[in-house]
From TrEMBL, chain A:
Family of the protein in this entry: Belongs to the GerABKC lipoprotein family.
Tagged with keyword Membrane: yes
Domain Spore germination GerAC-like C-terminal: 196-376
Upper taxonomic lineage: Bacteria, Bacillati, Bacillota, Bacilli, Bacillales
Principal localisation: membrane
Species of the source: Paenibacillus selenitireducens
Pfam families named in the record: Spore_GerAC, Spore_GerAC_N
GO annotation (BP), single: spore germination
Keywords: Germination, Lipoprotein, Membrane, Palmitate, Signal
Annotated localization: Membrane
Protein name stated in the entry: Uncharacterized protein
InterPro entries, A to Z: GerAC_N (IPR057336), Spore_GerAC-like (IPR008844), Spore_GerAC-like_C (IPR046953), Spore_GerAC_C_sf (IPR038501)
Gene3D superfamilies recorded: Nutrient germinant receptor protein C, domain 3 (3.30.300.210)
From TrEMBL, chain B:
Record organism: Paenibacillus selenitireducens
Entries under InterPro entries matching the protein: Spore_GerAB
Annotated membrane topology: Multi-pass membrane protein
GO cellular component: membrane
Keyword Transmembrane: yes
Subcellular location: Membrane
Similarity-based family: Belongs to the amino acid-polyamine-organocation (APC) superfamily. Spore germination protein (SGP) (TC 2.A.3.9) family.
One Pfam family in the UniProt entry: Spore_permease
Repeat in keyword set: no
Gene3D superfamilies, sorted: Amino acid/polyamine transporter I
UniProt-recorded name of the protein: Uncharacterized protein
Transmembrane segments: 12-34, 46-65, 86-108, 123-141, 146-166, 186-212, 224-244, 273-295, 307-324, 344-362
Keywords, ordered alphabetically: Germination, Membrane, Transmembrane, Transmembrane helix, Transport
Length: 379, 375
C-alpha cells in the first residue's frame, strides 16, 4: 500500500513537471556584451557579442548587429540570425555610444532591469566612437571581444580609478536629481581597446570629461575604496616654500621633479558648512607609498619627509580644487553634493531643477591631507 | 463543544517551538514585497513605521497570551463560544475560517507569481498550485507536530537568507536614511498600518495554545518569535532604503529579491533563483498552518475529520487562487486582505481580550457575591 502510494505520487510529479522547456548549454547563444548605437531617427543599431559552445567549431565567438527600435525587438531579430536561442543571464557589459545621450534615448537601458534574467551588476560604459565598430572589429589578438571588454572594465572599476557604474548604479543615479552620472569611457585604438576617462553628465547629457586622476578623486569622494598610481610633476621653482628643494641630493639641471606614489588608502569626507549659501568642505585623507621620484631625494635627513608631505599636499589640493571647479562649471554633481545637502537639510524638497540651478552657484573648498607611510624598499 | 480542551500528550509540543512557528508565519512571502508599500506612504522614514508596527504586534501578542492564560487551555473557537454563545460564536468562528482560507489562497498565489516571474515564465500557474497543494495535503496529514517540524526547517531557510542581505550593504548610500522624521507622524502611522499584511499570522497562537505542553513559557517564546521577525523586517527595510533610490524602490515589485540579484561568488551568481526556490519551505509552512487552522475549526465545532476536510479545503484554495491571474488582480487582493489582516489579527484580538477581561471580572464578582450570599 505504502509503495503504491509512493509510486503514484512519483508518477504524478513526473507527469506534472516533465514537459517544461529545457535550456541545454550547447544549444544556447550566451550573450556577454551588448552595445547600442543611436541613430538620428530614434532607432538603434544593436550589436551583441555572444559565446557559443559547440564542441566541433573552433571559433566560438560571434558578434551580430541588427537595426531595431527597442532592445527586445533587437533580441527577436538576433534570434532570427543565430543558430541557438539567446540567453541573457551572462550579460556582463552594456556599451552605449555618445549619440544615445544626445538623442535622449537612455530609457531603453533603464528598462533592461524589467527582465529578471539581467543581473543588476551588469557594467555600463560609454564608447567614444561607434559601439558596433568596437565590438565587430576583426581583432587579431582577442579571442572573445565580450569577455575582453568585461575583464577590462571589471578590474579597472574594482581596483583602479574607473568609477563603479553598474546597471543598478545607473538607474539609481538617473532616478534621483541630487546626483549625476559619471560613466567610464572607452575607445578602440587600432588593435587595442583602452579606458580613456570618465564622462560627466548633466541630466541625460554628456557635458564634460574627467581624466583618470579626477576619476580617482571622484571615487574617493564617493567613499569607494580605490587604489591608484598617482603621478605628479612638481616645478622646482615651486618647491622653495615647502622646503623640499634642499633635500634634492643631486641637481641634474632639470627644472621639474616627477613623483609617483601609490595610494594605499584614502578617505573622503564632505561637510556642509553653510546650508543657506550652500558651502561645502571636502577633505581627502590619503595614505601613500612613494614609488618613484625622478631625482635622488634624501629621505634620511630630518624634515625631508615632512617637506615632501607639505609639497604633495599643496599639489594635490590644487588638483582637487581644479576638479571641483570643473564639476561646478559643467554643472555635473556626480559626487552627490546634492544628496548630502538633501540628507542634512530637512524639508528642502529639492526638485529636479532646483538643485541643478543651485549647484554651479555653490562654493566647494577642497583640501588634501597626506601621510607618507612607506617609501618602498629604499629610502 | 467543550470550551476548554486539552489534547492528548502525543499531540502536544514544547513552547520554544512557537518561536519558529511565529517567525515563519509572519515572514512568509510578504517579506519579498512589503518594502514598497510602506515606502509609498512613509518615504525614507519607513523604518520607523516598521518599528512602530512591531511594537504594536508585541502589545497585541501580550494581550492575546494574557487572555489565553485566563482560560487555562482553550483556543479562539472555544473563547467565541464562551463569550458570545453558540450562534454568534459559530458565526465568528466561520468568519475566521473564511479569513484563513483567503489568506491561504493569497499566499499561494503570491508565491506562485514570484516563481512565474523570476524563474519559470512559461510555467502555468495551476501546475505549481496543484503541486504545492499536494505537498500541503501530504504534510498536513502528519498533523500539527509535523507542521511545526516544517517550521523549524523553514526557519533555517530564513536565517541563511537573512545573511545574504549583507551584500547590498556594499552599495549602500546611508545618507538616504536622512533626515530622520521628515515624513509627518500621520504618514508614518499609515505605513505602520500597512505592515499589517506582513506581520499578521502571529494570532495563530490563539489556536495553537491548547497544544503547548509547558504553557507558562508561551509568552516568552511567542514574544521572542515576534521580535525575531520584527528585526528581520526592520533590517530588510533599512537595507532597501539605503540601497535603492526612491523611485527604484517604488517601481520594483519585489525589492527583496532585487537586492539578492547582486550577490556574486566566484562559483555562484544570481542567488535569487536559489532563494526563491528554497523559499517554498517557508511559504509551505504558512499554507500548512493556515489550512490546519481551518480544519481545526471544523473539528472543534462539528467534530469533522481533519484529514478529509484538509483535502476539501485544499481543493477550494486551489480554485480560489486560480480565479485570479493578472498581477493587478493579485495586488488588488493583497490590498483587500491587508485590511482584513489589520482587523482580524490586530484590532479584533485586542478587542476580544478586553471583552474577555471584562467578562471574567464580571463573573468573578458574580461568583463572590453568590459566595457571600450563600454564607
Amino acid at each position: 500500500m505504502k509503495g503504491l502510494r509512493f509510486i503514484s505520487v512519483f508518477v504524478i510529479l513526473l507527469l506534472l513537471s516533465g514537459c517544461l522547456k529545457t535550456n541545454v548549454l550547447e544549444r544556447l547563444s550566451i550573450l556577454v556584451a551588448i552595445g547600442y548605437d543611436a541613430k538620428e531617427d530614434n532607432t538603434f543599431k544593436v550589436t551583441a557579442a555572444l559565446m557559443e559552445s559547440q564542441p566541433d567549431v573552433k571559433d566560438m565567438n560571434r558578434t551580430v548587429s541588427v537595426d531595431a527600435a527597442t532592445s527586445k525587438g533587437a533580441r527577436r531579430k538576433m534570434n532570427e540570425m543565430l543558430p541557438h536561442e539567446i540567453a541573457n543571464g551572462q550579460l556582463r557589459v552594456i556599451l552605449l555610444d555618445r549619440n544615445i545621450f544626445r538623442l535622449k534615448m537612455l530609457n531603453e537601458v533603464d528598462v533592461l532591469s524589467r527582465d529578471p534574467a539581467f543581473g543588476d551588476m551588469v557594467m555600463v560604459a560609454i564608447v567614444d566612437g561607434s559601439v558596433q565598430d568596437l565590438l565587430t572589429y576583426p581583432y587579431k589578438n582577442k579571442s572573445n571581444i565580450g569577455v575582453t571588454v568585461n575583464s577590462l572594465l571589471d578590474h579597472n572599476m574594482k581596483w583602479n580609478w574607473g568609477p563603479l557604474m553598474t546597471l543598478h548604479e545607473f538607474t539609481h543615479s538617473r532616478d534621483i536629481h541630487t546626483k549625476e552620472l559619471a560613466i567610464p569611457m572607452m575607445k578602440r585604438e587600432g588593435e587595442e581597446i583602452a579606458l580613456k576617462g570618465v564622462a560627466l553628465l548633466h541630466g541625460d547629457h554628456i557635458v564634460g570629461e574627467a581624466t583618470p586622476r579626477e576619476g580617482y578623486f571622484l571615487k574617493t569622494m564617493k567613499g569607494e575604496k580605490t587604489s591608484f598610481l598617482y603621478e605628479t610633476v612638481i616645478k622646482k621653482s615651486a618647491m622653495q616654500a615647502s622646503g623640499m628643494a634642499q633635500f634634492l641630493a643631486m641637481n641634474d639641471g632639470k627644472d621639474e621633479v616627477k613623483v609617483v606614489f601609490h595610494v594605499i588608502q584614502s578617505k573622503g569626507t564632505i561637510k556642509l558648512l553653510d546650508s543657506q549659501n550652500i558651502k561645502f568642505d571636502v577633505n581627502l585623507h590619503i595614505d601613500m607609498d612613494i614609488q618613484e621620484i625622478s631625482e635622488r631625494y634624501s629621505f634620511e635627513k630630518t624634515g625631508a619627509v615632512e617637506a615632501l608631505k607639505r609639497q604633495l599636499s599643496k599639489e594635490l589640493t590644487a588638483h582637487l580644487q581644479q576638479f571641483l571647479d570643473k564639476l561646478r562649471k559643467v554643472n555635473s554633481d556626480c559626487v552627490g553634493f546634492g544628496e548630502k545637502y538633501r540628507s542634512l537639510v530637512p524639508h528642502t524638497k529639492l526638485e529636479n531643477e532646483k538643485w541643478r540651478e543651485a549647484f554651479p552657484k555653490s562654493s566647494i573648498q577642497g583640501r588634501v591631507d597626506i601621510d607618507i607611510i612607506r617609501t618602498g624598499t629604499i629610502e | 463543544m467543550d470550551i476548554r480542551y486539552t489534547p492528548r500528550k502525543n499531540f502536544q509540543f514544547h513552547a520554544f517551538l512557537l518561536f519558529f512557528v511565529i517567525c515563519n508565519v509572519q515572514i512568509g512571502v510578504g517579506v519579498f514585497s512589503y518594502e514598497r508599500y510602506i515606502y509609498q506612504v512613509s518615504g525614507h522614514d519607513a523604518w520607523i513605521s516598521v518599528v512602530l508596527a512591531g511594537l504594536i504586534t508585541h502589545l497585541t501578542v501580550w494581550l492575546i497570551v494574557r487572555m489565553l492564560e485566563r482560560y487555562g487551555s482553550t483556543d479562539l473557537y472555544g473563547i467565541h463560544y464562551d463569550v458570545f454563545g453558540k450562534l454568534a460564536g459559530t458565526l465568528l468562528n466561520c468568519l475566521y475560517m473564511l479569513y484563513y482560507l483567503c489568506v491561504t489562497a493569497i499566499m499561494m498565489r503570491n508565491y506562485v507569481e514570484v516563481i512565474q516571474v523570476w524563474i519559470f515564465p512559461d510555467l502555468p500557474a495551476w501546475l505549481v498550485i496543484v503541486l504545492l497543494s499536494l505537498l500541503t495535503i501530504y504534510a498536513g496529514y502528519g498533523g500539527i507536530r509535523v507542521i511545526i517540524g516544517m517550521c523549524v526547517l523553514g526557519f533555517i531557510v530564513i536565517l541563511f537568507t537573512a545573511f545574504l542581505f549583507y551584500s547590498p550593504l556594499k552599495y549602500a548610500i546611508w545618507t538616504q536614511l536622512l533626515p530622520v522624521m521628515e515624513t509627518d507622524a500621520w504618514h508614518v502611522m499609515n505605513g505602520a498600518v500597512r505592515m499589517g499584511f506582513s506581520l499578521s499570522g502571529f494570532e495563530l497562537i490563539l489556536l495553537l495554545y491548547p497544544f503547548i505542553r509547558n504553557k507558562e513559557r508561551t509568552m516568552l517564546h511567542t514574544q521572542l518569535g515576534v521580535a525575531c521577525s520584527n528585526v528581520i523586517y526592520l533590517v530588510t527595510m533599512i537595507i532597501s532604503i539605503v540601497y535603492f533610490s526612491p523611485s527604484q524602490l517604488l517601481r520594483s515589485i519585489w525589492p527583496s529579491i532585487n537586492m539578492l540579484k547582486i550577490i556574486k561568488y566566484p562559483y555562484l551568481e544570481r542567488l535569487e533563483f536559489i532563494v526563491v526556490s528554497v523559499w517554498m519551505l517557508v511559504a509551505l509552512t504558512g499554507l500548512l498552518l493556515n489550512t490546519w487552522a481551518i480544519t481545526r475549526g471544523f473539528k472543534r465545532m462539528w467534530n469533522w475529520n481533519q484529514k478529509t476536510m484538509l483535502v476539501i479545503v485544499s481543493i477550494i484554495t486551489v480554485a480560489l487562487s486560480l480565479s485570479f491571474e493578472a498581477h493587478s488582480q493579485i495586488a488588488q487582493m493583497n490590498k483587500w486582505i491587508g485590511k482584513w489582516n489589520v482587523a482580524l489579527s490586530f484590532v479584533y484580538p485586542m478587542l476580544l481580550s478586553c471583552i474577555v477581561a471584562i467578562v471574567f471580572a464580571f463573573r468573578r464578582r458574580k461568583a463572590s457575591s453568590k459566595g457571600e450570599g450563600s454564607r
